[in-house]
Amino acid sequence: MAAADSLIGAGLAPSPYSEASYIMQVLGYRELTTEELTKINQIKQLGDEMQKLIDHLENIPGHTESRIGLTVDKRWVSIGKTHLQQGFMALTRSVAKPNGI
Question: Does 50 reside within a domain?
Answer without folding.
Answer: yes
